[in-house]
Task: inverse folding
């Protein structure tokens, strides 16, 4: 559910030379199998529009900002991501939509599994019926 979407503070080292953020074993509650990132996203773009059956992910705005609308079938919650040291843990079974990308926005995602199209629920009607069973 929406309540299972958790903020993850990414540990960082700050000094006069700038900041260094670290994602390693313990900061993520699953074993990382894949990293991908979205970049050069037009501000009018709509991304996401699906849920995952079993994939867990942590999303980080490495640069710029964008909004993510989460939906558990009952409740919706919008989170603006704009800090490279803030991760959002997305459990399975959450519909997500991503909008309002700023220029230069980079969305990095750390995933618990390699890519598998079978894991996607891309029809909202299917998502709703899975949620209601
Ligand atoms: C998610 C949001 C935040 C691959 O071949 N390998 C990959 O690892 C990924 C992620 C995608 N693809 C292919 C599948 C599609 O043909 O790349 C194409 C675009 O993927 P999609 O339309 O799913 O992109 P988004 O930005 O809507 O969604 C992605 C992730 O797929 C999804 O898991 O949570 O980013």
Result:
């Amino acid at each position: 559910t929406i309540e299972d979407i958790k903020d993850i503070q990414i540990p960082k080292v700050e000094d006069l030379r700038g900041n260094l953020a670290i994602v390693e074993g313990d900061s993520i509650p699953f074993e990382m199998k894949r990293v991908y990132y979205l970049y050069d996203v037009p501000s009018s773009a709509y991304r996401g529009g699906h849920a995952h059956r079993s994939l867990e992910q942590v999303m980080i705005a490495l640069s710029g900002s964008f909004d993510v609308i989460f939906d558990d079938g009952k409740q919706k919650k919008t989170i603006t991501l704009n800090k490279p040291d803030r991760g959002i843990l997305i459990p399975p079974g959450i519909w997500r939509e991503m909008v309002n990308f700023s220029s230069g926005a980079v969305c990095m995602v750390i995933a618990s599994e390699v890519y598998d199209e079978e894991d996607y629920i891309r029809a909202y009607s299917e998502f709703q019926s899975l949620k209601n069973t």
User: Anything to note?
Assistant: Residues 34, 36, 38, 47-48, 57, 96, 109, 115 surround dTDP-4-keto-6-deoxyglucose (CB under 6 Å). The CA atoms of residues 42 and 119 lie 26 Å apart. The chain has one domain: 2-131.
